[in-house]
Design goal:
single chain, alpha/beta, Rossmann fold, Hect, E3 ligase catalytic domain fold, four-stranded parallel beta sheet, 14 helices
């Protein structure tokens, strides 16, 4: 049988008895002769630690010759001459088994030249797995502890940032302006459309490649841009699946600067969540997509278009209940018809857009009068406290008078809330009516932004369907049940 021998000593062990290179050579030749093996190759690493196998030229040459099948069995003096880590031994034995090369230790019962000795490989594999899991657990616990403290666990710098000489993240302004662009544009555009715009402008990702809808969404969902450190978002061992157990903390870096405000980041996450539950297309900016609901089945109406034979396009909306779920039969509706019905709805002629209010004797007071009364009550409280401290007012009288003042304060405060609610209602009405006034002058994108800013939803009911034929008539619609954001 063709045999190869491997010898190694570290610098500290060259003078120790029993493990010198010469001693190993003598013992290995004697053992090979006793087995009837012919030595066809010798590999040596002198003065090199067994910490790893990558930096050992002797063992690297050995592994290449294993692939060339230059010998049948590898013989070592002791196992620790070959490797020190179970992981390295397991990988080496797997490599040898692939090329049908056996392993034997001259002084230990480690042997794969016999059927019984092959059990050794199974034992080593189990030990290697245990070692990997133990190391992985320690690394995970350490990284989790750092993440809980707001520290980053390495990784490349995200788009919009670079590392400085201290390893801190600093803003790359050329990239950061495109991060702001992405967040701003997402208010009315989808991630795919944003990716097309970035590629059109010649912007590249951090890796120097073109943008995709996935890379845009990754930016939009990354809290680092709002000053938050995220860890364990996706599993590196399960196809990068989302874990659902991510840790998000304020980033621990004194000089860190966020690129977008945290409130804007939270609003973006709300938009992402909202769009995930409805069909959303932004290439042509359909103002009513997702906001308009079918009165018949309750599903969203989504925009689409067809090219006209005469030129131009026909913009319309279709019910997801019909085209996606097959539970509705409502017709497709021209965008012009929904626009007309919607603009009639927001005239507010027959709509009472107010909050419920409780009647009060204070309703005749002005806002300024109520504020003045509150200031007077505050002065009364100060005076009552001074009288009590000076002993001019007993405890029971003090408590009764303070309770009466607090009750009056409560009633005045409630009136202020009612006044503010009434003011906000009027503001909303003014904004919506202004949208109606400017509607013909707005772009599709501006219309969409206005609708999504003001309305959470409204329903569209087909009262009379479209009449086709020689004398076509548009549908008669009723837009109702609107919900203000």
């Amino acid at each position: 049988m063709r045999c190869a021998i491997y010898r190694r000593v570290s610098t500290d062990m060259q003078v120790e008895d029993g493990v010198s290179l010469d001693n190993q050579l003598h013992r290995l030749h004697a053992f090979a002769e006793s087995q009837g093996w012919s030595i066809v190759g010798e590999y040596v690493d002198e003065g090199i630690s067994a910490k790893n196998i990558e930096n050992r030229p002797g063992i690297q040459t050995l592994m290449k010759d294993i692939e060339k099948k230059k010998f049948d069995v590898l013989l070592v003096y002791k196992l620790d001459r070959l490797v020190r880590r179970v992981k390295d031994l397991h990988e080496l034995l797997q490599h040898m088994e692939q090329y049908e090369v056996m392993f034997k230790s001259a002084t230990e019962p480690f042997d794969t030249t016999t059927p019984a000795g092959k059990l050794f490989i199974t034992m080593i594999a189990a030990m290697a797995e245990w070692e990997r899991e133990t190391i992985a657990e320690r690394v995970y616990d350490n990284m989790k502890h750092r993440a809980e403290g707001g520290y980053r666990n390495g990784g490349p710098s995200p788009f919009g940032y670079d590392y400085d000489e201290n390893g801190d993240l600093i803003i790359n302004e050329e990239e950061a302006k495109w991060v702001r662009f992405i967040f701003k544009k997402y208010e009315t555009n989808g991630s795919q459309n944003i990716a097309k715009l970035l590629n059109k402008y010649g912007v590249k990702t951090k890796k120097g490649v073109m943008w995709s809808d996935f890379s845009v969404r990754f930016v939009l969902k990354n809290p680092i841009y709002a000053g938050k450190n995220r860890w364990n978002y996706r599993s590196p061992v399960k196809g990068k699946a989302y874990t659902g157990n991510e840790i998000i903390q304020d980033i621990k870096q004194d000089n860190f600067e966020a690129i977008v405000p945290y409130e804007q980041f939270k609003e973006t996450q709300s938009i992402i969540k909202q769009r995930s539950s409805m069909a959303f297309r932004s290439d042509n900016h359909y103002p009513f997509s997702g906001i308009a609901k079918c009165a018949k089945c309750g599903n969203s109406l989504t925009g689409a278009y067809k090219k006209r034979k005469s030129g131009g396009v026909y913009r319309y909306y279709k019910c997801a209940g019909r085209f996606k779920y097959g539970v509705c039969d409502v017709q497709t509706i021209a965008e012009e018809a929904i626009e007309e019905s919607f603009l009639n709805m927001i005239s507010f002629e027959d709509v009472n857009l107010t909050f419920d209010q409780q009647q009060s004797d204070l309703l005749e007071l002005s806002f300024e009068d109520v504020q003045k009364q509150l200031e007077k009550l505050n002065l009364k409280k100060v005076r009552m406290k001074e009288l009590y401290i000076d002993g001019d007012l007993c405890k029971d009288d003090y408590q009764k008078r303070m309770l009466a003042i607090q009750e009056e304060e409560k009633e005045l405060s409630m009136y202020l809330e009612e006044y503010e609610q009434e003011a906000s209602v009027e503001e909303i009405k003014a904004i919506i009516l202004n949208v109606k006034k400017e509607w013909p002058n707005l772009s599709f994108e501006a219309k969409k932004k206005a609708i999504q800013f003001l309305f959470e939803s409204f329903t569209v009911e087909v009262i009379k369907p479209t009449k086709h034929g020689k004398y076509p008539e548009p549908p008669v619609l009723e837009t109702k049940d609107y919900r203000i954001r």
